[in-house]
Amino acid sequence: MEEDFKKTGYLFGGNAVFVEELYKQYLANPASVDQTWQEFFAGIQDNNTLLNKSTAKIIIPDEIKKESLNNNLSSEDLNSLKAKEMINAYRKHAHYLANLDPLGLELRKTKNDLKLNIETFGLDSSQLEENINITDEFVGTWNCKLSELVTKFDKVYTGSIGVEFEQIENVARKNWLYNKLESEVTFSSEDKKTILNDLVEVEGFEQYLHTKFPGTKRFSIEGGDASIVAMSKAIDLSMHHGVSEIVIGMAHRGRLNTLTKVVGKPYKAVIAGFISGNVFPDELNVSGDVKYHLGYSFDRTLEDKKIHLSLADNPSHLEAVNPIVAGKVRAKQDMLGDTKRSKVKAILVHGDAAFCGQGVVAESLSMSPLAAYDIGGILHFVINNQLGFTANAADTRASRYSTEFAKIIAAPILHVNGDDIEAVLKATNIAVEYRQKFGKDVVVEIICYRKYGHNEGDEPMYTQGKMYNIIKNKLTPGNIYANELVKSGVIDNNYFAKLKEEFKAKLDKEYEQAKSYKQEAHCLGGLWQGISRTRTQATITGISKKTLHDLGTKLCEIPKDFAVNPKLVKLFEARKATLTADQPIDWATAEQLAFASLLASGTNIRLTGQDSGRGTFSHRHSVLHNQIDGTTYIPLNNLSKEQAKYEVADSNLSEYAVLGFEYGYSLANPNNLVLWEAQFGDFANGAQIIFDQFISSSETKWLRMSGLVVLLPHAFEGQGPEHSSARLERFLQLAAENNMYVTYPTTPASIFHLLRRQILDDTRKPLIVM
């Protein structure tokens, strides 16, 4: 980062560190900085000017007149420097001035509050018509009147979008974002009509359900309509950027509109769920789930492009789906060989209270840049309806924004007023392009409101009377935009009403068809074809002794020039001896042989967890570390040229998110062996929601099968109750209706055959290994 700073001669303004480092460089070698800065710093020394680190402004002592500085810089150059300082200040702080709350409840700060008036920077109103000429790597090129510059930055930074980019250390990424934000985005008349039609369909479907099924829970998106339009736009933009598949994760709010408007589920299929209450065919004999938890997949086409969309199934537990989506995306990227992470991407939709309240959000964000879990960035939408059920924002967080956690990975954050649909789409456009260009997470927070209570049967006036008195008299986002288009002459007064009538007529037809609609089971397609929901026959898992010997020999080979730890040399020699002498083998050797046999037959294996490369009990040692240069050697990846891939990774210190990720990975391809290992089996309780809501129940709720293996090593070692149990009883309580295998293998042979059966079997069930 310091090298980037040293390349420029213009590091003045809102960041004290820039100026300070440049000044140090000047003191060491004046010729190493730009001529302009040489003159400026010379003036600092001559005039005893002070650098005030807390404000990053040039402070000239009272006894020294301003004219002394002007002797070194022309008036035009000095004004340009002041304007640069103003630009930096706007970029950092003007988000506090942005008009983000569509309800007008937030007390907005003023320029005086934030010291963003021109006088703060040594300028005054008499200079507004003077020209400003700036050419700078950091703030860009500006050649205009001071008044035009102020008007421009007021429009960009104090309108309907407020941004936080300063947490980004990478200068190129940050400059790109500012340049994109400061560039004009225009929408043609046809674009505007399309946007209005989208808003009509979002609101129209919600109102149709509200009328046909009054009081029935659907978790309406009304008030946050823009989020659905933005998500749909993000998909179209992603197609233009070469994305071929998107996996979406979200909670219940707005899910029915997402299923239909975004993902492509027929309206009649959703309406049929309201009429009959069935979500799956009766003959499947599964419990199913409420309609606003279900997922769906569909291929969307646009012009000559096609993209596969998947909305992941989701329980009531908010944000739990985040790592599942990420894992599924990573698996699909790996299958495609998408090493640039540009063909398959994830979109996550969050609620404001959940995003800052649920720990799995922080766990998932923290792991996202790590090599084993990187998916090239996630596009996050936060639907901030300013409430968490009945709790006000001040009750759910201490920060002004709900998005502070995103700063731990330096994700850019764009806050936008949900009533300004064009601003929402501009922010979405920037976010989509940023993710594709830089492969990093990005957050768009849409500040909106919730038209009804937490659900349609709830009364919000009990707890938010002031807010809902405003909401009940408020125009909808569709009405607001229609009025804008009428005022600008894009549409006439009848256009909006006609759109609504036409869409209602369409829904009336869908409603009639829904009365006789037969629900379909969208499962066991694609790579899952040939997989059975039940085991149809016994599985042969044995292999020949010769094959075992051959694989065991390869596993114990260490390159001669590889400086392995001497203790491991003895361990590997002992492993080899047990195989050649037909002696009993240990657990680790049996596991490694099972892995090797599957790899040799073409099955990819992925194993992650805390310390899984070596193994908590120092038993596995599937990754060898060179004692001299730190390089690694993995015997399981050196069996033959034709073998499949063995991927092993030590995870970050997380159970919830990492187990969720591996479960998601297992959903994409039944032909991969996917394993998660707890550091100690007892620590699995940190991921209890994943066990309860996904691993044990996803098949009966959503017809989603998984062959995930969960390894829970533990033993009575005098280490207390947190290292000795793994709580077998909890898993036995979860076991029902043939939903998973809970095993307690007592011999190395047992683990060998269990692991091989997971792949060779004609069904897929999660396997818990105590």
UniProtKB/TrEMBL annotation:
<keyword id="KW-0786">Thiamine pyrophosphate</keyword>
<dbReference type="Pfam" id="PF16078">
    <property type="entry name" value="2-oxogl_dehyd_N"/>
</dbReference>
<keyword id="KW-0560">Oxidoreductase</keyword>
<dbReference type="InterPro" id="IPR005475">
    <property type="entry name" value="Transketolase-like_Pyr-bd"/>
</dbReference>
<comment type="function">
    <text>E1 component of the 2-oxoglutarate dehydrogenase (OGDH) complex which catalyzes the decarboxylation of 2-oxoglutarate, the first step in the conversion of 2-oxoglutarate to succinyl-CoA and CO(2).</text>
</comment>
<dbReference type="GO" id="GO:0006096">
    <property type="term" value="P:glycolytic process"/>
</dbReference>
<dbReference type="Pfam" id="PF00676">
    <property type="entry name" value="E1_dh"/>
</dbReference>
<feature type="domain" description="Transketolase-like pyrimidine-binding">
    <location>
        <begin position="585"/>
        <end position="769"/>
    </location>
</feature>
<comment type="similarity">
    <text>Belongs to the alpha-ketoglutarate dehydrogenase family.</text>
</comment>
<keyword id="KW-0324">Glycolysis</keyword>
<comment type="subunit">
    <text>Homodimer. Part of the 2-oxoglutarate dehydrogenase (OGDH) complex composed of E1 (2-oxoglutarate dehydrogenase), E2 (dihydrolipoamide succinyltransferase) and E3 (dihydrolipoamide dehydrogenase); the complex contains multiple copies of the three enzymatic components (E1, E2 and E3).</text>
</comment>
<dbReference type="GO" id="GO:0004591">
    <property type="term" value="F:oxoglutarate dehydrogenase (succinyl-transferring) activity"/>
</dbReference>
<dbReference type="InterPro" id="IPR001017">
    <property type="entry name" value="DH_E1"/>
</dbReference>
<dbReference type="InterPro" id="IPR011603">
    <property type="entry name" value="2oxoglutarate_DH_E1"/>
</dbReference>
<dbReference type="GO" id="GO:0006099">
    <property type="term" value="P:tricarboxylic acid cycle"/>
</dbReference>
<dbReference type="GO" id="GO:0030976">
    <property type="term" value="F:thiamine pyrophosphate binding"/>
</dbReference>
<dbReference type="InterPro" id="IPR032106">
    <property type="entry name" value="2-oxogl_dehyd_N"/>
</dbReference>
<dbReference type="GO" id="GO:0005829">
    <property type="term" value="C:cytosol"/>
</dbReference>
<protein>
    <recommendedName>
        <fullName>2-oxoglutarate dehydrogenase E1 component</fullName>
        <ecNumber>1.2.4.2</ecNumber>
    </recommendedName>
</protein>
<dbReference type="InterPro" id="IPR029061">
    <property type="entry name" value="THDP-binding"/>
</dbReference>
<dbReference type="Pfam" id="PF02779">
    <property type="entry name" value="Transket_pyr"/>
</dbReference>
<dbReference type="InterPro" id="IPR042179">
    <property type="entry name" value="KGD_C_sf"/>
</dbReference>
<dbReference type="GO" id="GO:0045252">
    <property type="term" value="C:oxoglutarate dehydrogenase complex"/>
</dbReference>
